[in-house]
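Practice record 12: protein with 2-keto-3-deoxygluconate.
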Amino acid sequence: MSTDNLHVICLGEILVQFNAVTPGPLRHVTYFEKHAAGSEANVAVCVKRQGLSSGFVTKLGSDEFGKFLYNWLRGEGVDVSQIKFDPEGFTGIYFIQRGFPVPGRSSVIYYRRGSAASKITESDIVEEYFSRALILHLSGITPALSESVLRASLKAIDIVKKNEAKLSFDTNIRPPLWKSMEDARKTLLPIVEKSDILFTDIDDSKILIGESDIKKIIQHYLSIGIEVVVLKLGPKGAIAATKSSYCEVNGYQVNVIDPIGAGDALAGTFLTGLLKGYTIEKSLRRAIAAGTLVVTVRGDQENLPTEDEIEAFLKYYSGKQD
Ligand code: KDG
């Protein structure tokens, strides 16, 4: 491992998110807000905001949106040295429809097939760079982008495993990105099995291991050698477990504007906690606080809290939750 470490390196696609300003079906929405988003990019920004170093590896189109996203990440202090611009490619975008047809829920409409990020190949994975990672973080979105991105992801994983760094994986199954759920299962399971830290939820676990019982899901993942399992329970909170510890933290009741991005805030904050040497329980409490803040606004990254802001949140809610 290089002496010039980065705490967390993330590989994936950052996209422009157009978030409906008003709730309801998109056909009736007139105004959209522009945000920088994308699961792994959200994690990279989260880690950096909480005072650790992070790098984000991707390809962007040589277009206005590519410039916006590059400058955004650079402005946040994420290491962008491995971001490439593809002169032929375009930057992926997506729209968020809020509060319809299910109040409090959002849905995602992608315009990303064939984007610059989907053209990432193994040759974009530089061994010297990935050797600097203490943690490589990926989600189930990245391997779904294309065959070549899947191969690139596997190469990055091999590098960090060879260096005895940790693989953090969020299963994040996004059905519109897969041919079938069987395809998702076959592709993602080998990555899950290599993970040291796993973020998942009940829906994804049903697809991946055919299990929906909370205790059995956790037992299964621990039994295959995953060190830390975090099971996200949506607004109910989350559970974190290792072979020797188990803790459950309840969610907070807040006014949900857009729940998308909460899982990334949770993952990024939890990883930051582990890297700072916090206990599993303290890391999870902080992670739930961060996820809660993100759902109270449009956009995935704007409300990602700093260390002090998490403290202020927890201090305010102390004794008011559970
Ligand atoms: O986790 C939030 C992401 O789902 C969102 O930002 C968009 O990365 C995204 C995706 O591919 O769904």
